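One record is given unchanged without comment:
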Amino acid sequence: MAMRPLWSLLLWEALLPITVTGAQVLSKVGGSVLLVAARPPGFQVREAIWRSLWPSEELLATFFRGSLETLYHSRFLGRAQLHSNLSLELGPLESGDSGNFSVLMVDTRGKTWTQTLQLKVYDAVPRPVVQVFIAVGGDAQPPKTCQVFLSCWAPNISEITYSWRRETTMDFGMEPHSLFTDGQVLSVSLGPGDRGVAYSCIVSNPVSWDLATVTPWDSCHHEAAPGKASYKDVLLVAVPVSLLLMLVTLFSAWHWGPCSGKKKKDVRADRVGPETENPLVQDLP
């Protein structure tokens, strides 16, 4: 009995002039979203139908003769709820739930009203990872400064934006030339007065955000922690020791080479001596 009104609603949508409105609704994976069925003032709904238009066309929910129905075989089966005001709630949402939806309503006088909504489902932004890289010092670098590159990265996420914030300082703005790769890399020059200054990388999308904070001065080579040497300190020790071991090896090879040759000659001389003496002993009567 309910199939005939549904077919009539679809036929009215195809043949009669209707009013179409569009809106975008944003939500995140794991959450829920309410698709509001807006209608003009004085529009008394007699029948309504909710459909998914894209990526696949599916029947989601209907309202007929005061009865709400959502048990249709679609990808939202068990995740759709039609409220008394004919708004459709979907959840928990999955990453593949983005798409276009429409609600077709017919009033008691036979007039129709169609509303189209676009649902965009985003992944929740995870906490980013910030790495600190120290530039190699040179003559052009002012003394007692540390040139730092901060690299920020959010794993397994797309459609996000990166921004940086300097903590413990009011009204701080990053210069455009200090940002690289769409804001993922920040270059800053630190001095002794920046020992306790922290920088936060903020990653965000339209529905969520997260941040990670580091204190880059702690990673500067001239501020190595007790018991931990910087890479320059390691080279200053390792290179001289390696050269010393190499010189010792070469000197040993040069010194013991002639000695071993002399020993071999002495051994051969000792072996030849008895052989030359034996004939003399045999000639005696």
The two ends are 145 Å apart (CA to CA). The first strand starts at residue 20 and ends at 28. The longest helix spans residues 231-282. Confidence is low (pLDDT under 50) at residues 222-239, 260-285.
